[in-house]
Amino acid sequence: MLTENLTEAERQYYYMEQCRQWVEKQVKELGRPLTASVVTFGCQMNARDSEKLTGILEKIGYEMIDSENADFVIYNTCTVRENANLRVYGRLGQMKQIKKKNPSMLIALCGCMMQEPEVVEKLKKSYRHVDLIFGTHNIFKFAELIYRRLTENQMVIDIWKDTEQIVEDLPNDRKYAFKTGVNIMYGCNNFCSYCIVPYVRGRERSRQPEDIIREIENAVADGVVEVMLLGQNVNSYGKNLETPVSFAELLRRICRIPGLLRIRFMTSHPKDLSDELIQVMAEEPKICRHLHLPLQSGSTKILQKMNRKYTKEDYLLLVDKLRAACPDISLTTDIIVGFPGETEEDFLETMDVVRKVGYDSAYTFIYSKRTGTPAAVMENQVSEAEVKDRFNRLLEEVQTIASRVCSRHEGTVQEVLVEEINRQDKRLVTGRLSNNTVVHFEGDVSMIGKLIPVRLTSCKNFYYMGEPENFTKN
Ligand code: 5AD
Ligand code: SF4
């Protein structure tokens, strides 16, 4: 069949069908289903990409399982810190033995780590048991690449440096029936000096608002009530569209979708957070009372070296504005400790912001040197002992503050979106408040995906135990 005149999505459906026929044949020969497992590292972006990979695998006829003892194992990798890379190499080492026992097994690697040429060189040399390698820009080609691997019978590598292309309307499989991530943009143009993301995810590209709305409407028709809008820097959404649309305007349009109950988004860069956005957040009850606002450092000197384009004072002012407009908003953040040149005084500035803001939670990271980024060649890399000491002090402060901040709603009644039956105690259900705090309370499976009013009876550091209002025990 000639695939030249088809749209990209149509081409990919053609390859899905070819692969499906192959899988069907295998299933008949083996007399059992073919299984696949997608192992995800890293951020929400990767989690969403994995749902797309899973959707394609299901279409092809694989049965998805949660174990790496599968016929097809896909590692969706992260490279934001070196640790993430080391974990992948570790897993691949183990897979060598497993594959020896099941030689027809397939192993694929994709995601951010594959966009680094040294990684692919290393894989080609030392990890010959890998079957398929692709990157962040061409996951939509997954079926075509599997087909190539099946027909060529050798390691297939397809990495693109960058792309303008956004392929719509491919299958995807949602992990939860009632909530989903929705990409609104891809890539990042900020080049924070420590960060490898702009090199591995390419330049900013926004999806058309109509495509985003259509995707959400379809998801709502399928039972989704909460969406998480995803982008590396959602506040610069739409700036490069032919007809520019601001992120605040996109949010307004999404709020009008009937049946959608909650809207979350991440990540927001403080430098681009507009007054218009703050206003929309204050006006629209569907937008959740939570903002993830990465600080990275509280020292203006370090922020400048990080190329963050705001000062300590700018950040604190922004927090004041947000709190004035949405008094009950929860703030969370990312902080890096041990950036090159960070002195004790710089670190104390970070501690000062942590105390002043009072975060509901903070992800704290030890600076990790990423080859190719400007920070990797900066002088005065901080000694390991100093970094560890600062990291521990920061973590303790963050946790103490978080447990105090988290308890501020104790005794009140709030709506909880129920997500699942509690994993430890089957009589309980687990859900989230609008501000993202986890709540456990007595309930049953019929509550999943529903908003239930719950009295928050006691706060346990970072989560609540509650009682549903109007709850009558028999
Ligand atoms: N070292 C440590 N942390 C990093 N992050 C990004 N790059 C690095 C790095 N080289 C952190 C930032 C970012 C989060 C996703 O990961 O805090 O917000
Ligand atoms: Fe990395 Fe900065 Fe872009 Fe975030 S905004 S992905 S930290 S370069």
UniProtKB/TrEMBL annotation:
Q: Which residues form the MTTase N-terminal domain?
A: 34-151
Out of the domains of life, which is the source?
Bacteria
Which of this chain's residues are annotated to bind [4Fe-4S] cluster 2? 188, 192, 195
Alphabetical UniProt keywords: 4Fe-4S, Cytoplasm, Iron, Iron-sulfur, Metal-binding, S-adenosyl-L-methionine, Transferase, tRNA processing
Concerning Pfam families, the annotation shows: Radical_SAM, TRAM, UPF0004
CDD domains with a match to the protein in the record: Radical_SAM
Compartments, record wording: Cytoplasm
Q: How does it assemble?
A: Monomer.
| The protein's name | tRNA-2-methylthio-N(6)-dimethylallyladenosine synthase
Q: Which organism is it from?
A: Frisingicoccus caecimuris
- The gene is miaB
